[in-house]
Design brief:
Blueprint: E1 14-21, H1 26-53, H2 64-91, E2 97-101, E3 106-110, E4 115-117, H3 118-143, H4 147-162, H5 164-174, E5 181-185, E6 188-194
Antiparallel strand pairs: 1-6, 2-3, 4-5, 5-6
C-alpha cells in the first residue's frame, strides 16, 4: 500500500495525464465565451425579476454618480472573486500567489506547484460564485430597488458571467475520478491520476 502523500504533493505513483492551458485551446476559449452570453442574459433577467418582485424601482435616471458606483462595484467584484480563490486555497494549506492578467485587466490567484485533490479544486473554483451571489442577493433584499441594490444585482450577474472559465474548468475536472490531483496555474491546470488508470 502506498503511503499517503504529504499535503500539497502529488503521490509518487501518479502520473500527469492532462496539461490544460486556456490560451492554447482556442476552440474551448471560444466555447467559454459563447456560454457566457446566454448565461449573462439569464442571470441578468433573474436579477431584474427579483428586484421587481421585491418592489424595486428600476426606472431611476442614470447619472455620473451611479455610473461611478457601478464601475467601482464591478472592479471590487473582480478583486473579491480572486481573493476568495486565494482564501480557499489557503484553507487547504497552500500559499496563494497573486498576479495581474494584462489581457483581462484583472487580478488572479494561483498556488503554483501545490497539488489539490479534485474535490478541493472544485471548491476553489465554485466558492467565489456562491459567496458573491449570496452577498448580492442579501444586498438586494436589504436595499430593495435603490442604486445599491441594483448595483449588487449586476455584480452577481457579472460574477457568474465573468467566471465562465471557472464553470467550464469545474465541468472539465469533474469528468475525472475523485482520486485525481490538480495543480493550479494562472490560466490552466495540470491533472494527475494513478499510473494504473
Amino acid at each position: 500500500m502506498p503511503h499517503p502523500p504529504t499535503p500539497g504533493q502529488v503521490p509518487a505513483h501518479y502520473q500527469e495525464v492532462v496539461y490544460w492551458k486556456l490560451g492554447e485551446n482556442k476552440k474551448q476559449y471560444i466555447l467559454i465565451n459563447l456560454i457566457s452570453i446566454p448565461l449573462g442574459l439569464g442571470v441578468g433577467i433573474f436579477c431584474f425579476w427579483l428586484l421587481w418582485w421585491l418592489g424595486g424601482d428600476l426606472s431611476g435616471s442614470v447619472d455620473l454618480r451611479r455610473m461611478l458606483w457601478l464601475v467601482g462595484a464591478v472592479v471590487l467584484t473582480l478583486l473579491l472573486h480572486e481573493l476568495i480563490h486565494g482564501w480557499v486555497m489557503k484553507r487547504f494549506g497552500a500559499t496563494p500567489q497573486y498576479g495581474f492578467k494584462a489581457k483581462l485587466l484583472a487580478l488572479y490567484a494561483t498556488a503554483p506547484g501545490y497539488a489539490f485533490t479534485r474535490n478541493q479544486y472544485v471548491q476553489i473554483l465554485l466558492a467565489p460564485l456562491v459567496i458573491i451571489t449570496l452577498l448580492a442577493v442579501v444586498g438586494m433584499v436589504l436595499a430593495g430597488g435603490t442604486a445599491v441594490g441594483f448595483t449588487l444585482a449586476l455584480c452577481a450577474s457579472f460574477n457568474a458571467t465573468g467566471a465562465c472559465g471557472d464553470v467550464y474548468m469545474t465541468y472539465f475536472v469533474c469528468r475525472y475520478p475523485a482520486k485525481a490531483y490538480i495543480i493550479d496555474e494562472a490560466d490552466g491546470l495540470r491533472l494527475f491520476l494513478p499510473s494504473s488508470i
